[in-house]
Amino acid sequence: MVCVTILGLLTSTLVVSSSGNPLHLTGLHSWLNGRIVGGEETTIERFPFQGSFRMYGYHRCGAVIIKAHVATTAGHCVDDQDTWYLSVKAGVTEWEDEGMELKVKDYIAHEDYSIRTLESDIALLFLEGGFEFSNTIQPIYLASYGEELHPSTKAYVSGWGTMKENGSALSEKLRFAAVTIWDQEECEDAYEGINNVTSTMICAGEPQGGVDPCEGDSGGPLIVGNKLFGTVSWGLGCARPGKPSVYVKISALRKWIDSKLLAANAN
């Protein structure tokens, strides 16, 4: 049986993908999410756009601050949840630190999002009030529509996800790792017969494995320079050789993001 890890959650649920293979949803125990595989500890000052998307006050997934009152996360992290117990915390290196926590007043998942295919696995979180920007809380620039990364480009991913596949211990401190952007066709080949890698996805990892986001990192940032190029979505296990992590491709969905932000401002 082929299991694809949804990199945000932590119990076991099976959903059949478009290719007929079971997708292994490692999730729903939001209090049991952990660390980046093969990474190292860092501080929020280096990744001030990193947020913790929470359910009942416990870390569930990563989030990325893009405006004072808007963050992004993975579509599968919100998946029809009521907003009254959802929040985003920012400004913390250790996820249990006080920081600044705002309630989610509304969210919009992409209309094409599907738990079967993980197509367009993104959601915008609209927050009550707004974050006060400082050296520990800052928004990040988004990749422009159609902006591409060359294969072999070094990128960085951060979060509090597990340090090993099927891990369950929380990382007290934020971690990050350097990963390599994959050629799109090579990534498609790596997941042939497992799940479709589409034009709204971008892949990053190391051919030999050993470095990867893992359970609890979904929705977190993939950055190059000072721009957000991806958000963590799915992969086959964690840090396996020849199986990179798959991210939402921000440049492919930039028009959708802008349209939803414009509509929200109009209302």
Written overview of the protein:
Residues 1-20 form the signal peptide. One of its GO terms (molecular function) is serine-type endopeptidase activity. Pfam families: Trypsin. It comes from Hermetia illucens. This is Peptidase S1 domain-containing protein. The protein has 3 helices and 17 strands. The chain has 267 residues and is mainly beta. The chain has a 6-stranded antiparallel β-barrel with strand order 12-13-14-17-16-15. The protein has helices at 75-78, 184-190, 250-266, and strands at 4-6, 12-16, 22-26, 40-41, 50-55, 58-67, 70-73, 86-90, 100-109, 123-127, 141-142, 154-159, 175-181, 201-205, 221-224, 227-235, 245-249. The chain has a domain at 141-252: Trypsin-like serine proteases (Thrombin, subunit H, Beta Barrel).
Net shape: globular
Structural class: mainly beta
Arrangement of strands in the largest sheet: 12-13-14-17-16-15
Uncertain stretches: 10-16, 21-35
Total E-strand runs = 17
**CATH topology descriptor of the domain at 141-252:** Thrombin, subunit H
Radius of gyration: 16 Å
Question: Under the CATH scheme, which class of the domain at 141-252?
Answer: Mainly Beta
Main β sheet profile? 6 strands, antiparallel, barrel
Pfam families: Trypsin
Signal peptide: 1-20
Protein name: Peptidase S1 domain-containing protein
Keywords: Disulfide bond, Hydrolase, Protease, Serine protease, Signal
